[in-house]
Amino acid sequence: MKKKDVLSVKNLSKIYSKNNSGTINALNNLNLDVKQGEIFGLLGPNGAGKSTFINILGGIVIKTSGNVNVWGYDIDKDPRQVRASLGIVPQELNLDPFFNPRRLLELHAGMYGIKKEDRITDEILRLVSLEKNAESYARSLSGGMKRRLLIAKALVNKPPILILDEPTAGVDVELRKNLWENVKLLNKIGVTIILTTHYLIEAEQMCDRIGILSKGNLVALDTTKNLINKIQTKTVTFTINQKTKIDKIPLKSLKIISQTDDKLTLSYEKNNLKIDEIISYFSNKNIIILDISTDDADIEDVYTNLTKN
Ligand code: ADP
User: Among the atoms of ligand 1, which is closest to the Cα of residue 213?
Assistant: First the structure.
């Protein structure tokens, strides 16, 4: 394991046996490393194996084979140290409705055997922006606040790695931004973040690197930037000075997607054609370009491409 990897997974497999018959390969020879200080996103459709992976890290599911090393500890040899290095924020908003955030964190710290003077309850409450709600019953908190309280709970023993399982599930759109800001803040103070999400746009905005799981296989693992760069097809809309219909543009890989009034939407493969060539073509034909807008590919395109089969 390189010094900077805080999580190292080698040939990790999980085979579940079904009650009635047969087996299911929930994880197939998974290999991945998470580096210190990064925000790593694990994406994948339902049934991809994300929960299985998180549950193996959390010690809830026993792997079939392979190696997992967390913060320098081997999951087979030092399971307790592995657990102590991870703060896992579960998907379900399972909180006792009659506890307030402060009491919940204090109780949790007690469970970890953290002495009163060593507790960082106020600091955690501030980190997740719940200091003003420290004394409110959990049942009166919004979905976003509940989620932040679960994050707070996972921070009680100051783990260097925080795992968030579908952190925005059950959180209103407007509160998500707030939640992400808190996660970014935690990352800024040095906590390595691993998250799973269905919301591709969020993964794109939040994550330094992304791994995409499909049916137990890691079908992509790269920086968010590289993944987006892998998309070959570009779409561009030109606003031009004429309304005559353009039927064909004889340039390699270029397709006319639509033409309405003075707007012409084209697609092209970026390793076959550069946008300059399209612009020169127009200028040679005395077509004046009034405006150009590009519709950049996003992680959603990579994702659909990789997981469609
Ligand atoms: P995800 O979290 O990405 O939706 P899961 O890890 O929950 O995926 O599931 C991966 C696969 O393993 C699925 O096909 C699922 O049905 C199966 N699976 C998950 N848990 C069990 C289990 N306890 N017993 C049998 N099969 C399971």
Answer: 3
Read off the pLDDT of residues 32-57 as tens digits, 9 standing for 90 and up. 999 999 999 999 888 899 999 999 99
Nearest CA to ligand 1 atom 15: 47
Ligand 1 atom 16: residue of nearest CA: 47
Return d(Cα 286, Cα 283) in angstroms, integer: 5
Q: Whole-prediction pTM value? A: 0.81
Question: Which residues are 10's β-sheet partners?
Answer: 67
Which is the closest atom of ligand 1 to the Cα of 44? 3
Show the domains of the chain with their CATH numbers: 5-228 (3.40.50.300), 232-297 (3.30.70)
Res. 103: pLDDT tops 50: yes
Ligand 1 binding pocket, CB closer than 6 Å = 16, 18, 24, 26, 44, 46-52
